[in-house]
Every structure is written in C-alpha cells, then in structure tokens.
Amino acid sequence: MTMNKPKVFVTRRWPARVEQQLSDLFDATLNTDDYPLSLSELIDAMQNSDAVLPTVSDRITAEVLTVQPRQTQIIASFGVGFNHIDLDAAKSEGLTVTNTPDVLTDCTADLAITLMLSLARRAGEGERHVRNGSWSGWRPTHMMATRVTGKKLGLVGMGRIARAVAKRAHQGFEMEVSFYDPFLPPQEMLSNIEANSCKSLEQLLSSSDFISIHCPGSKETHHLIDANAISHIQPHAFLINTARGDVIDEQALVTALNNNQIAGAALDVYEFEPVIDDELLAMDNVVLLPHLGSATLETREAMGMRVIENLKAFFAGEQPPDKLI
Ligand code: 8YV
What we know:
Helix content is 36%, strand content 13%. By secondary structure, the protein is of the alpha/beta class. It has 2 domains: 7-103 and 297-315, Rossmann fold, CATH 3.40.50; 105-288, NAD(P)-binding Rossmann-like Domain (Rossmann fold), CATH 3.40.50.720. The chain is globular and about 70 Å long. Bound molecules: 2-keto-D-gluconic acid (8YV). Residues 55-56, 78-81, 104, 293-294 line the site of 2-keto-D-gluconic acid.
C-alpha cells in the first residue's frame, strides 16, 4: 500500500499531530532532528519526493526548483509568506505552490499587539530589571513609559493580519487607526473596520504614534522602510515589524535608533534572520522576539492541517484551496 502513497518530504519538525496525519496519509519523510537542510539536501528532496513541504527557513531558489531530473510536482509551504520561494522559477517549471493563509491571522495580530504593548510599556526592559536584581521598589517616577490607549496606529499594508490588528487596536485600545496599502482590499472587507486610508506611505509615517508593518516580503517591499522613509517618522513614534525582516533596512533602523530619530522598535523578524545586529541586541528601547508570529500550538497545528488539505486536493487531481501558482 505504502508504495502507492505520494512521497512527501517535510523539511522541519511540525506539530506531532500533523506529523502523525502526514505519516498516515502519505509516504512521509520527516526531519525528526529539526536541523536546517543544506542546499544539496533540498535538491535531493526535489529529486526523490512528489511533494516538498518547506518553511520560511528554507531557501527554495531557482537552483533548487530547476534541478533535473525532478520528481516533485508541488511545493506545499507551511506559512502564509512565500518570499522564501522563487515563484517565477516555480511557475516556469510548471510546479504548483501553496501556502497556509487565514489560520495564522489572529495569532500573528495578537503578537503585533504584544510587541506594541511591550515596547510602549517597557515590558522587556522591566523584566530584565527585575531579573537582574536592580529593582529597589515602587516609586512614582520609575520606568515611566508611553500610554497606548487612544493613540494613533499606522498600518503598512491592509491585508488580513493588518485588519485583525486594526480591530484589536480600535476596539480594545480606542486607537485611531490609519493604513497605507497601494492594493486596497475590497470595500466589504473594510466595512466593519474603523480605519482611515492614507494617500502615501509618508503621510502614514508622519502622522502615526505607532507604526506596524503588515505588507508581504517581496522585491517591491524590500527596504520599503529605508532611511528616507524613517526620516518621516516622528521622534516619539515606535516601529513594529511582524511581517518580513527585509521590509526594513535594518542598518538604517539602527542608525535612526542611535540618533533618537524614533523612540523605539519591536521586531519579530529580521533582515538577516536568525542573525541579529549586535547594536540592536544592546538597546533597551528595542523589543526582540524570535519570529513567533504564528507560534501557538493551535495555529501551528492548523497551518499543518491546511498543508494536508492542499496536498490531498492536489493528489486527487483537484485545485488545492491555497494555490499560489
Ligand atoms: C511562520 C510566517 O512561522 O507564515 C508566515 O509567513 O512568517 C510564520 O507564521 C513561518 O513562515 C513558517 O514557514
């Protein structure tokens, strides 16, 4: 029987319940040691499996996708972002590529709010203060921070995750929400959200107290937030990124923080992930998380199950629900 099951190659450890289902449904190769695969291992997977199931930490480049001979017909990625896959190369190879939208929207939005609150209220700094034994007791002027409620939040991009952040910020913290997105979502998706559309990125940046990035990572958004963009941000404003690291020119951000051009930054993603700039590591007005946007058991299981749905449809000769190409 096993011989007839499609061969699927999983590049990293997935939640146990999903790995179990993958093994039940397919002839699955799992990475039980959870180590990052080398280029030659990825190429080998393309040559010997019907499906490759990568994550953001795998570079699915043209070199990997164009290998000959190739057995793989579908790249079923675990994650909503797909900037780690060369979609042009995949398309010209006639490959199908899928992702896992929707199921991670709420948890990623929750994490953006976590970062905003941690940054504004100096939560990371305060925790370090307690843990290293520096806290001498309550006093009226100790670690005064910045109020969040009622402030202006600017969203770069207005896709699913940004809209979920907008709801939380407006309904939970009475924030005045604005956004900039050159590809406006259909009006019905905005109808239940209180948010103003800005005509330009500069307008958004110069009028917000908190700026949260929610555009996809792509050639078009690479270094969207560069030194010039940062120069429009107000000195008291904070920058939050749960999207993709290279949307921000990290060196320009470090310079701006060093020069007090902005008040602080909270990052879940990095330009050269997992390498983090040494200067950022030393700054107290910076909150740093290790790409945790979707990292809840519920969401990671749902992402895995979504990959399984895409694979089941593909191998049944149907259109996978999350087909990108
Ligand atoms: C994932 C993410 O953890 O889905 C995305 O795009 O950034 C995260 O939710 C990661 O991408 C898994 O591949």
